[in-house]
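Input C-alpha cells:
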C-alpha cells in the first residue's frame, strides 16, 4: 500500500509503515557546463517522436492513423559518465589491483547485500572544508546518539554540500573523510558509505596540498578500498531531511554495467512512521 500526502510518501512493508525520503540528486542540463564529469541530456518530445516514426519508414498515413494528434512517444538521449549524478563507486574505481593482488570488484559484481541495510546518519554539517572528518569525529558523534554501528550498517555522512550542487566549484566545498575515519567505518563492518558531496575524500585542493606537504596520501579514503573493499555513494542529497540518526533503512542498488567502475542509483531512505521517525 502506498499513501501520498503533501510532500510525504508512505509505504507499508511487512506490516510496518515507512516514509520514503529521496536522497538522490537530480541530473540536469543546468549544471552540465561546469561538471567535472560532464553530461548532456537531449530531449526528444512527443512531436519529434512522431517524426521518428516517419524516419523509421512508416508512411505518413500510417503514422496519422496510429497517432491522429501527431504526438507519439517522448525519448531522452543522455551522454554521461558512470560517475555523473548520484552513483555508487565499486572498488575497481579505486585502482586496477587489490593489495592482495586480486582484481577489484566491478559494479556488476558487488554483493547486493552491501547495497541495502540499516542506516546511521552522521551529522558532520558543522565541519569545515579544511578540517576534514576524522575517526574521532565519528566516534564522538556515535557517543551522542542512541545508535550502534553494526556490520551491514550503511553510513551516511551529512555535510550539506549538496545545497551547492547547482553552483560552479561545488566540488571544492565539502569536508570529506580522512583515511582513519573511513577505516573506522569499514573495520566496524560497514560496506557502503554515502556522502552528500562531490566525493568521499576531502576536497582535491585541500588533499593535494596535504599530500604535497607529506601530511597525507592523496585520495586516501578511496585507496583504502583496495586494502579493505567497500562501496561509496557520492552526490547524495537531502540527508538533512532524514529526521532521525538511526532506525531507518537505506536502499541504493547500482545500475548493472558490465566491468564498470560505478553505476547510477536512485538512493532512498526508509524511515519508520510511528517510531522515532514520527
Amino acid at each position: 500500500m502506498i499513501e501520498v500526502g503533501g510532500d510525504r510518501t508512505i509505504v507499508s512493508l511487512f506490516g510496518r509503515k515507512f516514509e520514503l525520503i529521496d536522497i538522490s540528486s537530480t541530473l540536469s542540463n543546468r549544471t552540465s557546463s561546469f561538471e567535472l564529469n560532464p553530461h548532456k541530456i537531449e530531449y526528444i518530445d512527443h512531436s519529434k517522436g512522431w517524426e521518428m516514426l516517419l524516419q523509421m519508414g512508416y508512411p505518413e498515413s500510417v503514422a496519422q492513423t496510429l497517432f491522429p494528434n501527431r504526438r507519439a512517444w517522448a525519448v531522452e538521449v543522455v551522454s554521461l559518465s558512470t560517475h555523473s549524478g548520484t552513483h555508487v563507486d565499486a572498488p575497481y574505481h579505486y585502482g586496477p589491483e587489490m593489495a592482495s593482488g586480486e582484481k577489484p570488484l566491478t559494479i556488476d559484481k558487488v554483493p547486493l547485500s552491501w547495497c541495502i541495510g540499516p542506516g546511521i546518519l552522521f551529522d558532520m554539517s558543522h565541519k569545515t572544508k579544511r578540517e576534514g572528518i576524522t575517526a574521532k569525529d565519528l566516534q564522538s558523534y556515535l557517543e551522542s546518539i542512541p545508535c550502534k554501528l553494526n556490520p551491514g550498517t550503511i553510513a551516511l555522512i551529512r555535510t550539506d554540500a549538496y545545497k551547492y550542487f547547482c553552483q560552479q566549484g561545488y566540488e571544492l566545498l565539502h569536508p570529506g573523510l580522512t583515511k582513519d575515519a573511513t577505516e573506522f567505518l569499514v573495520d566496524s563492518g560497514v560496506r557502503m558509505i554515502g556522502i552528500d558531496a562531490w566525493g568521499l575524500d576531502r576536497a582535491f585542493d585541500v588533499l593535494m596540498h596535504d599530500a604535497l606537504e607529506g601530511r597525507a596520501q592523496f585520495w586516501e579514503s578511496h585507496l583504502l578500498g583496495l586494502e579493505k573493499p567497500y562501496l561509496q555513494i557520492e552526490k547524495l542529497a537531502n540527508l538533512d531531511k532524514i529526521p532521525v540518526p538511526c532506525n531507518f533503512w537505506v536502499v541504493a542498488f547500482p545500475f548493472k554495467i558490465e566491468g564498470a567502475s560505478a553505476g547510477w542509483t536512485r538512493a532512498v531512505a526508509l524511515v519508520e512512521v510511528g517510531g522515532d521517525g514520527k
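Helices lie at 46-55, 60-66, 135-143, 179-187, 204-212, 220-224. The CA atoms of residues 45 and 74 lie 5 Å apart.
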